[in-house]
Amino acid sequence: MVTITDKAKHRIEQIMQEESYDANYFVRVAVESGGCSGLSYKLNFDNEEKKGDQFCEDKGVKICLDIKSYLYLAGTELDYSDGLGGKGFEFHNPNASRTCACGESFSV
């Protein structure tokens, strides 16, 4: 299961409103090959379920992961930072054994 912080929930709701996404949309979180450490995070909005998708919900936000990503992201917390260090979503992944300095990629 992936959880989200209150800040991430607020930002997700803002984006959904700005983009006029209806209640059929959910947050799709995935892992793909690439980045400094070998694997990188991908986050977008989707309204189409794919075979093998795994769903969870936290704080009223529906989150979708494909089965491969689920194995890498189980227990991860999605946060949002708007501080001086940069704006954007951050992943706090307990499965990552190493992350790059920018926090956009990891390895297990």
UniProtKB/TrEMBL annotation:
Residues 2-104 form the Core domain. One of its GO terms (molecular function) is 2 iron, 2 sulfur cluster binding. InterPro entries: ATAP, ATAP_core_dom, Fe-S_cluster_asmbl/transfer, FeS_cluster_insertion_CS, HesB-like_dom_sf. Pfam families: Fe-S_biosyn. PROSITE patterns: HESB. It comes from the Bacteria. SUPFAM superfamilies: HesB-like domain. Transmembrane segments: none annotated. GO terms for biological process: iron-sulfur cluster assembly. GO terms for cellular component: cytoplasm. Belongs to the HesB/IscA family. NCBIfam families: iron-sulfur cluster assembly accessory protein. This is Iron-sulfur cluster assembly accessory protein. It comes from Sphingobacterium deserti.
